[in-house]
Amino acid sequence: MRIVARFYIAPDGLHAIAVSIVPSAALLDRALVYRSAILGSKGSGVQRVVAHREREESEMTARGTAARSGAAAQNAGAAVTESSGYEWLARAGFVARGLIYMIIGVLALKLALGAGGKTTNQEGALNTIAHQPFGRLLLLAVAIGLGGYALWRLVRAAVGQHGDSSFDRISGVASGIVYAGMCLIAVKLLVGAKPSSSANPDKATAGVFGWPGGIWLVGIAGAILIGVGLYQGYRALSKDFLDDSKTEQMSPTARHWFERIGVFGYLARMVVFGLTGVFLVKAAIDSRAKTAIGLDGALAQLANQSYGQLLLGVVATGLIAFGIYSLADARYRRI
Q1: Which residue, 90, 1, 4, 33, is CA-closest to 330?
Q2: CA–CA gap between residue 200 and residue 294 (Å, rounded)
Q3: Is 46 within a domain?
Q4: Could you read off the pLDDT of 50-85 as tens digits, one per residue?
Q5: In terms of C-beta density within 10 A (0-12 exposed, 13-18 middle, 19 or more buried), how is residue 11 classed?
Q6: pLDDT category, 175, cuts 50, 70, 90?
Q7: 12 vs 105, which has greater pLDDT?
Q8: Using H for helix, E for strand and C for coil, what is the string for the chain?
Q9: Are 89 and 179 within one domain?
Q10: Within this chain, do residues 33 and 117 fall inside the same structural domain, yes or no?
Q11: Angle at 209 between CA 206 and CA 210, to 5 degrees
């Protein structure tokens, strides 16, 4: 490395000096290497910043696409729920549900009164409809109604309406699946298919026992049914079911009876769902599939108790009340 000094004398007598450092060739080469290394490291940092920014933009784009897709799906769901055909199917479903509960209740009430009758479940009610005059036509109408009800429950669970909570939407999915199964049973009866053995609670339970953890599954199913029964009781006592209907369009007398019939009906459902769940839990604890019962078994258990005919008569009347409530709700339900 060399140090070079230059002196300057200006005309006015001022002096100036300039000093410069001239690096050697080896030092210059080394400096160039260090500069390249520094720039390279800075370049890697820049690349990382750019890559991070690109990832952020990609994620924002993906979120925007997902949001647009969700909005499109929600708009499509809203278009379905606001259609007249959808509303018609949903209201037909309430009529079908009402008829099924009324048939179950009437048959059980006749048994309680000693006027014939029998305890039956939803499939038995559908079979009773099929054997009436114009039974196949009636059964076809009921099947359409059950399918419409299942569709309404499932679509509402997916889209969400009227401030539905997460619990409301989950219960909507469960209800939709149950009524879709009932619709399938009605279709099978229409085409002349024989009922499957799974329709028998003890045989279905025995089949589940054969699954890995089957006993636990049966016990959990029983506990869920007990919970459903308790929820029916809560709805009856709190009368929150009135919020689901357009009670403001009813006359004071109609609203009074709508409330009374609804409370009675929900209490009856609490009894039959609760009993069904209890016996499922008992079947799991005892590992005895024959202990499991369905709706008809729950009614039969009532008949076998002390004052059984009275108990059966009261619950049967409650099921009829729930059927009437469902028919009225077909008119006033907030779809």
Answers
A1: 90
A2: 8
A3: yes
A4: 456 667 666 666 666 655 655 555 555 566 677 888
A5: exposed
A6: very high
A7: 105
A8: CEEEEEEEECCCCCEEEEEEEECCHHHHHHHHHHHHHHHHHHHHHHHHHHHHHHHHHHHHHHHHHHHHHHHHHHHHHHHHHCCHHHHHHHHHHHHHHHHHHHHHHHHHHHHHCCCCCCCCCHHHHHHHHHCCCCHHHHHHHHHHHHHHHHHHHHHHHHHCCCCCCHHHHHHHHHHHHHHHHHHHHHHHHHCCCCCCHHHCHHHHHHHHHCCCCHHHHHHHHHHHHHHHHHHHHHHHHHCHHHHHECHHHCCHHHHHHHHHHHHHHHHHHHHHHHHHHHHHHHHHHHCCHHHCCCHHHHHHHHHCCCCHHHHHHHHHHHHHHHHHHHHHHHHHECC
A9: yes
A10: no
A11: 100
The residue written with tokens 């059950």 in the block is 146
Q: What is the dihedral sign for C-alpha 238, 152, 220, 321?
A: positive
In angstroms, the CA 5 to CA 52 distance is: 51
Q: Is residue 75 a part of any domain in this protein?
A: no
Output phi, psi for 117, to 5 deg. 75, 180
Both tokens of 120, joined, read 């039956």
8 A C-beta contact, residue 101 and residue 317: no
Q: Name every residue whose Cβ is closer than 8 Å to that of residue 214 and which is 6 or more positions away in sequence.
A: 208
Q: What total of structural domains would you count in the chain?
A: 2
Give the Cα separation of 100 and 121 in Å (integer): 9
C-alpha–C-alpha distance, residues 99 and 135, integer Å? 13
* Degrees to nearest 5, angle at CA 142 with 141 and 148: 95
pTM above 0.70, yes or no: yes
283, two tokens:
């079947």
Name, in order, each residue with C-beta under 8 angstroms of 80's C-beta and a sequence gap of 6 or more. Answer: 86, 155, 159
Residue ranges making up the domain that contains 252: 83-332
State the helix-helix crossing angle for 84-112 and 308-332, rounded to 10 degrees.
Answer: 160
Q: Which residue has the higher pLDDT, 45 or 191?
A: 191
